[in-house]
Amino acid sequence: MRALSNSALVQEAARKALSAQELEKTLARFRELCVDKGADVTALEQVAETLRNAGFKNELMNLLREALELPNANPHVGALWVRRVVTSKIWDHRYPDYMDALCKEGEVGRCAVLEFLELAGAKRRVELVRTAVSRHGKWLRGDNPGWAVAGRALVQCRCYGSAARWMAGWRDKPAIDPPTLQALVLALRATGKKKEAGEVIQLASSSSGGMEVSDVFKLWIAEDLAFGGDTEKASATFKLINNSGWDDDLLAIYYMVRGVLRVQKAHDSGKHEAFTMGKERIEELFRRKPVYKRDVFVRREYRRCLTRMAMDSGQWIERVFAAWRSAESPWFIAPLLLIPGLQLFLPCYLYRLCVRRRGIGK
C-alpha cells in the first residue's frame, strides 16, 4: 500500500476534526447564513473558517457558488467566494470574469469587487488591480468605501501616479479612515505633492480627536521639519516614532531621516563622523537588495536624504554618489554624456535607471 504524503495526512487529520454529524450541522448552518441577507457577517466568516480549517474547501466553494445563484444571497457571500478563488492553489492569477456578472446583482457583486481589490492590492497584483479599477471605476468613485479600497490597492501596487489621480477628490470625501489617509499621503509624497500631503496630515491630526497621529505620519512630519531646518522640533517628533512592524521600505526611510537628523545635530567638528556612521547604517539596509532595485519613491528618498547629509557635512562628492547609487532621475544622464570620460558609465546607469522601476509616473 502506497504511503500517504504529509499533505494528505494533514488533510485527512483536519477532516477528522468534524464528525459526520457535526459536518452536517455546519453545512446546514452555512446554507442558512448564505441565504439570509441580514445574517451577521462575523457568524458567516466563522462558519466558513470552520469548514476551511477542517479541510472541506471544495464543499465550501460549491456552497458559495450555489448561494451566488440565488436572489436572496447574503452580500458577504461575494467576498467569501472571491477569497476562495484568489487563495486557491488552482487559481490561474487571471481576473475572474464572473465577478463582472455578479456586479449586476447588486450588493453581492460590490462586496466581491471590494474583497478582490483588498486581496490583489496586498499581493501587489498590479494588472489585476488596474483591471478591477478600470472596469468598476464609475461606481467605485461614488462609493466611499469602494473609493478608499481602490486607492489603497493602487498605492500597495506602487501605482502612485494613478493613486494620486484616483484620490484627487479627497477633500470632498467624509470621514476618511486612517489607513486610507496614510495611503493618500504616500501617493502624494511619491508624486512630489508634499504641500497637499501636508494638508492630509493636518486633516489626520484634526480628525484624531486629540489622539496622536500614526507613526508613519510622524516620520513624514519629522522629515519635512528636518529639511525645513527645524532640527530641534524634527528630532522631538522623530523620538516619538515606533517603527515596529514596518516593511523594509519604510524602515529604510526611517533610518535615512535619522541620518539627516544626526548630521544636523552634530557639532561642526563631528559632522563628518556623523555622516560616515549614518551612511554605513543606511548602506546596511540595502546590502541584500540595492537601492536601485527598490521602489522609485525609496530611490528618491535615498537621493534626497544622502544629498542633504552630504551638504550639511560639507562632502559635495557624496552628493554625486547618492545620485549614482539611487539611479532615481534621468537628469543624471546629462553629466555622464557631457563630461569627458564619464560616457563609459552611461550603460550601467541606464540599466540601474530602468531596472524594476516602479511607481511615481504610473
Jot down its keywords:
362 residues, mainly alpha, 67% helix
Q: In short, what is this structure?
A:
The chain is mainly α and 362 residues long. It contains 20 helices and no strands.
Task: Explain how this protein is built.
The protein is mainly α and 362 residues long. It has a domain at 214-362. Helix content is 67%, strand content 0%. It has 20 helices and no strands. The chain has helices at 6-15, 20-34, 41-53, 57-68, 76-87, 98-103, 107-122, 126-142, 144-156, 160-166, 178-190, 194-206, 215-227, 231-238, 248-265, 271-285, 296-312, 316-326, 333-338, 346-354. Helix 7 runs parallel beside helix 9, helix 15 (248-265) runs antiparallel to helix 16 (271-285) and helix 15 runs parallel beside helix 17. The chain is elongated. 37% of the residues are buried.
Q: Globular, elongated, flat, extended or rod-shaped: what is the shape?
A: elongated
> Which structural class matches the secondary elements?
mainly alpha
The tally of strands reads: 0
Uncertain segments are none
Oligomer: single chain
Question: Major sheet: size, sense and barrel closure?
Answer: none
Order of helices and strands: HHHHHHHHHHHHHHHHHHHH
Mean pLDDT: 87
> How far is it from the N-terminal to the C-terminal residue, by CA?
57 Å
State which percent range the strand residues make up: under 5%
Radius of gyration: 25 Å
Percent of residues in helices: 55-70%
Give the count of helical stretches.
20
